[in-house]
Predict the structure of Methylase.
Amino acid sequence: MVYEPREDTFLLLDCLKRGFRGGVLVEVGCGKGVVSVYASNRADYVVGVDIAWEAVRLSRELARASKECLVDFVQADMLNPFRDSSADVVASNPPYLPCDYREDPLVCGGEDGVEFSARLAREAFRVLRRSGELFLVASSISNFERLLDVLRGLYASVEVAEERRLFFEKLFCLRALKP
């Protein structure tokens, strides 16, 4: 099963449209490749990563259909295969609902909804170059304050770059800058 682009995907796209400045971008949890393919028109190079082989396959199909798209897709667990200080931007619409990740890895971000995102923030810090940026989608349903604490403990600055209200929650696109 592969995550279908939804409001949170488009929030990340809008956030990148306003704040993304180029360089090497890695998208974690590329799903069907929509964000990575979009970013390939603005970045020097893009790598989309997903733990699900089906997501990588579908993303590659989208990239082939886009023709002038410089993006690679790899199957991996988060940022494990990437060297330290190898990317300018890490972007993700991670699973963020408070439930067990093993129950539904497409939407469950851990007990508080932020465990996956906190792990990703730490891995991104390692992979990002100096002054690199992390763009991360989060939800008010999760333990949002805990996620902000993790980000503030790692990054030089953290801001809510975009925000959207849905029926029963707010979605946030966070932008964190590495010192």
